[in-house]
Design goal:
Oligomer: single chain
Protein name: Adenosine deaminase domain-containing protein
InterPro entries: A_deaminase_dom (IPR001365), ADE (IPR028892), Ado/ade_deaminase (IPR006330), Metal_Hydrolase (IPR032466)
Shape: globular
CATH class: Alpha Beta
Mean pLDDT: 87
GO cellular component, one term: cytosol
Number of helices: 16
Largest sheet: 8 strands, parallel
Cofactor: Zn(2+)
Bound molecules: zinc ion
Distance between the termini: 17 Å
Structural class: alpha/beta
GO molecular function: adenine deaminase activity; metal ion binding
Length: about 350
Amino acid sequence: MPEFVAGLPKAELHLHIEGSLTPARAYAIAKRNGLDLDAFDPEKGAAARREFTSLVPFLIEYGKCSGVMRKEADFYDMMYDYLERAAENGVVHAEIFFDPQTHCYTDILEFKTVITGLTKALEEGRKTLGVDGKLILCFLRDRSVEEALQVLEDARPYMEVKSPVYTPDLLGVGMDNAELGFRPGRFKPAYDKARHAREAGLHCVAHAGEEGDASYITEALDDLKIERVDHGVRCLEDPAVVERLVKAQTPLTVCPCSNHRLQVYPRFFCGENAVRQLLSRGVKVTVNSDDPAYFFMGNVSAAGRACDASAYDGFLASNYVRTLALNSFDASFISEDDKKAHKAKVAEYCKGWRPACPPAA
Ligand SMILES: [Zn+2]
């Protein structure tokens, strides 16, 4: 199964680039930037990452390591590291979250530094690794709507086709960070603005139904008009929400390893597995890695590892894994022609694995 999954072409649709920063890379960047190296000792960092079992300690460690970033090269290196691991795991297309508010708005960094480093690495990744990476700008939901609107304003030059810094790599907006108590509807003005922010509009996604219950999903669909739900596993607690997701074929970007480690949804790995339940009910599920460098995924990371871990735990047979790969392209924001081409490659790949790879579930 691991070999089958690693080679299976797939898209990764739920990956926070800050969550891909390994302890070794955080240390190297801290050194380059003249920071206190003791605080970023890679062995201590790896040990800390093995310890946390809930959201708050994770966010503290995440915030500390994200704080090493100072220069364009730091963002380039962090992104290129991820793209290399993605390529090793059969990821051919990735729609990658980044959090400008984690880095900017503190007088240390400008939006320009962040996006330029990231897009330069994406360009190199396309050329040398064959991974087509795109960006989804995320608002931090525990910060103000006014700041989210300011982020969009700062991103505007990168979205205007006639601007000298225009980049087609910025394809959408999302929303992340602690969910409970931070209702999605509050961000309606930012999403309304994003939807009209460039000629064809930005795609809209949001984290919902991870810590928050199913009503957060409904609110994100109604108020923010999102096209894809990040996490969304708690839809299982409300049959009407599941029915709505199935009817509209709204994709979920589920992250089983993350849910398991952070225990944001304790029942996830107990009894019936959520991914299998969602698949069997006809929900368009995809499986992703979320913050792979923090969840024991080490150097293998990426969607492949998440698929693999689920499979290892005995919850997913290879036919489900094949369906997840097909879903990952269906749920992506690539063109219909590109979806067809990638899905044909999945089918072709699976032919080579018969009889181990039954038809899609
Ligand atoms: Zn996430």
